[in-house]
Amino acid sequence: MELWQLSATRLAAGIRTGEISAVEAAESCLRRTxxxxxxxxxxxxxxPEETLAAARRADAAVAAGGPLGPLHGxxxxxxxxxxxxxxxxxxxxxxLAGMTAAHDDACVAALRAAGAVxxxxxxxxxxSVRWFxxxxxxxxxxxxxxxxxTPGGSSGGAAASLATGMTPIAQGNDIxxxxxxxxxxxxxxxxxxxxxxxxxxxxxxxxxxxxxxxVQAWAVQGPxxxxxxxxxxxxHAMAGADLRDPFGVPAPPPxxxxxxxPVRVGVVRDVGIVEPHPxxxxxxxxxxxxxxxAGHRVEELDVPLLxxxxxxxxxxxxxxxxxxxxxxxxxxxxxxxxxxxxxxxYAAGLWGERPGLDAYVRGWARRATLITRLQELLGTDTVLxxxxxxxxxxxxxxxxxxxxxxxxxxxxxxxMTSLPVLGFPGVTVPAGTDGGLPIGVQLIGGRFTEDRLLDxxxxxxxxxxxxVPPAAS
Length: 473
Prior knowledge:
Blueprint: H1 8-17, H2 22-40, H3 48-64, E1 75-79, H4 106-113, E2 117-122, E3 134-135, E4 139-140, H5 156-163, E5 169-174, H6 180-186, E6 189-192, H7 204-207, H8 213-218, E7 220-225, H9 228-238, E8 264-267, H10 278-293, E9 297-300, H11 304-321, H12 325-331, H13 334-351, H14 356-378, E10 382-387, H15 403-412, H16 414-422, E11 426-434, E12 437-444, H17 450-463
Parallel strand pairs: 1-2, 1-5, 8-9, 8-10
Antiparallel strand pairs: 3-4, 5-7, 6-7, 6-11, 10-12, 11-12
Helix pairs in contact: 2-3, 5-6, 9-17, 11-13, 11-14, 11-16, 13-15
């Protein structure tokens, strides 16, 4: 077995003991990136000399015998919309091709402090808005399972690079499924943490205009990984107290894995927006059966508040975006302009063409009630099992293939859009394949119960078939 095939957990342990050198690990991942990269176009800014220099410093630190971080020497990728000092911060937009980050984003700084070796930047759609990962600057990222289907978005490059073995861990961010959906499309694990657990702070010099309230309150940074254990390792490395983040918590909550045990699993298939595709329903059935086998109490639940939250996503986010939309679209590619036209049409069907301040204020007030009700439902011992999307991975550019299809794509994403509104954690984990494509399921838990969610995800991973896409074989 080559080093690029090892888990981050295994690499970190081997590098710490000197069994594996960080340089050897970096060289293996760089070779794999050169080999698999052209087939999927997942990592778009790979700098081998800088990566190897960082790996040599990691090996020197091991030799010196000092304290080592949990990801010491482990290759990791970062996303093109996330500031990493000295590297391009293009957002996949040609007009921003000359923009360079002056500082590390807080989550990048946390990965650096944990000892990660940065290997490359992962591709995303322009401004990280679509559930597809192509842009005019870097081109299209392909799904390692099928060229004709999306790798997900917006962290599609991150998920595709993991599935093909370029790195064992990738950083992503999520305000509408951008971590969880690509993970589901590519057959890997994605974690959307509770808002505030991982700092979302960015230096003012790198943010541009101050982000709107929905971005401040809903957007999170989090890990994607090939295994649940690696996702847990990366999440703990990224989490930390940072009160520069207006929604940051003063200290990360203690891990609760030791108290997890069997939980009540509520299966939620349909929230009144669109019925799940039969392949999606079958994946939920498989996951539910595996969780029963693991000793969890599984029952069907009706949770309409998730549908209401998904509808609020289209109101609150799109009204927040509206003032800056003309400027964004002036720099956007044609696909993004078309996608946004359909997305706003979908929202108008729910809320009217111009919802106005009164609807916006009522929407924020209603959000608080939904958060309370969901926390009461989850209590201390309940996890929800939902589809990752009402459809299997979409065909490429489905969101811009025509009005009817574009509206259907937005509707299908209710499992992705409901959660950011509420601020709860979610994990997507593979639950088998259908028609040659991976199908993922989502787990939702109470706030700051990430370790419990990951325990439940581990039970699914332990029983699911191991997925290896054609591009990684």
